[in-house]
Design goal:
The protein has one helix and eight strands, in the order αββββββββ. By secondary structure, it is mostly beta strands.
């Protein structure tokens, strides 16, 4: 984490590059149920800060935290109620390449970088104790693509797909991805 802090401090010390900053936020909530005892619920938040050191090239630091819960119970009251919960935290630093200038109304982009992932899965039967059944932690490659749509000169709506893998030391490698929609503010 020291290298991220160092990068942010050094980026702020380079006013001669005449860059600009962009702050972004996105959230995603989903609920899908069959009845009160059988449902899936998830919530994810992402915050990002980008420094454009050239007109169409930036360093983006982003943080994602998410939660998912799946509850299953049979049709009778004596059936067990099983709950699986997933928690994720990802901090990533990506190089963002935009294919349009800041003042253009449509700005497609791609990004590639690396991050640090912590992912936990818990299992619970009825009201018993939650048990940690899976834990993944480590460095991951990250990337994505998307489109930024200008509302005003400073405010935009961003939609895109971000992807990352399981930590490099874990086999087999699985690719996780998330569709995102949010707002960003340039200054």
């Amino acid at each position: 984490m020291r290298w991220i802090t160092l990068l942010l401090l050094s980026a702020g010390a380079l006013p001669a590059w005449a860059g600009f900053f962009e702050l972004g936020a996105a959230a995603n909530y989903r609920y899908s149920g069959y009845d009160p005892n059988n449902f899936v619920q998830s919530l994810t938040y992402t915050a990002s800060a980008s420094y454009y050191f050239w007109e169409m090239c930036a360093w983006e630091l982003n943080y994602t935290t998410g939660y998912s819960k799946q509850v299953n119970q049979g049709t009778t009251k004596i059936d067990n109620r099983e709950t699986v919960e997933d928690n994720i935290q990802l901090t990533a630093l990506d190089l963002v390449l935009s294919f349009a200038a800041r003042q253009d109304p449509f700005r497609p982009y791609v990004k590639v970088g690396a991050g640090y992932l912590v992912k936990d899965r818990f299992f619970q039967v009825n009201k018993d104790n939650e048990n940690l059944i899976a834990h993944q932690e480590g460095w991951v490659p990250s990337g994505g693509f998307g489109l930024s749509l200008s509302i005003t000169h400073e405010l935009s709506v961003k939609v895109g797909i971000d992807a990352w893998t399981t930590p490099l030391k874990i086999k087999p490698m699985i690719i996780d991805y998330a569709g995102r929609a949010g707002i960003s503010w340039m200054f």
